[in-house]
Predict the 3D structure of the following.
Amino acid sequence: MEGPRPVVLSGPSGTGKSTLLKKLLKDYKGVFGFSVSHTTRDPRPGEVDGKGLFCLPMLLGATLLPLADVLSSVSSADYHFRNREAMQEDIDTGEFIETDEFSGNLYGTSKCAVQDVRAKGLICILDVDIAGVRHIKESDLDPIYVSIQPPSIEVLEERLRGRATETEEKIQSRLEAARIDMEECNEPGLFDIVIVNDDLDESYEKLQSVLKEEIMKVQQGIKS
Ligand SMILES: Nc1nc2c(ncn2[C@@H]2O[C@H](COP(=O)(O)OP(=O)(O)O)[C@@H](O)[C@H]2O)c(=O)[nH]1
Ligand SMILES: Nc1ncnc2c1ncn2[C@@H]1O[C@H](COP(=O)(O)OP(=O)(O)O)[C@@H](O)[C@H]1O
C-alpha cells in the first residue's frame, strides 16, 4: 500500500508506550492514527471499546453508520474487547495480521485495523508485544520498529504499581515478560531504535526525531 510507513511501538507493559503514543496523537492531529487491536482481556475503567471488527472502507460503502460515528468509534477506541470464542473465530477466518497470547489473554492486530488508518493516509501506529514484532516482520507492512524500554526492572515495577490497573498476579506475569523483552530488544536488526524511557520529554524528543521523515511526508501532503 502507498503512503507513509507504519510505526510499531513495542516494549514491556508499563514502560510508557501508551503515554508516548497518546502525546503523538494529540500533538500531531491528522498525522497519526492508532491501529485498534483486539483483546480478550477485560476493559480497564475509562477504556473505550471499538465494538468489533470494522473495516471503515467497507462500512462507508455500505453506509451502515454515519461517517462521524464511524470515525469517532474507530479513532478514539483503546481496543476491540471480545470474548475468546468470538476472537478465535475471526482468527480462524484469517482476519488478523498477527496474534499473541500475553499474560493469559489473546491480543491481535486485524487487517482492518491497519487498513482503516492507512486508507486515510495517516501514519499507522501499532502497539504490540515482542512476539507481535516478530510476526509483523514476516508480513509486508514494512514499519519503523521502535522499542520503548524502562530504565530498570525496579522502575518498571514502580510504574506498573503506580498505574494501579493490574492484580498482583498480573503484575508478576508482566514483570516476567518484561525481563525477556529487556533482553531480546537488543537483538541485532530487531528494532530500528531502542529508547530508554527515563525522562518522558527526552524520550518523546527521540521518538519524534526517528519519525520526522514520515511526519513530514504527511504534513506536506496536507499542505499541497
Ligand atoms: N502481539 C500483540 N500484542 C499486543 C497487541 N495489542 C497490545 N499488545 C501488547 O499486549 C501487552 C499488554 O497490553 P495491555 O493489556 O494493554 O497492557 P499495557 O501495555 O500494560 O497497557 C502489551 O505488551 C502490548 O504491547 C496486539 O494487537 N498484538
Ligand atoms: N518517563 C516516565 N516517567 C515516569 N512515569 C512514566 C513515564 N512514562 C510513563 N510513565 C507512567 O508509567 C505508567 C505506565 O505507562 P503506560 O503508558 O500506561 O505504559 P504502557 O502503555 O507501556 O503499558 C503510567 O502511570 C505512566 O503515567
In short: The chain is about 45% helix and 15% strand.
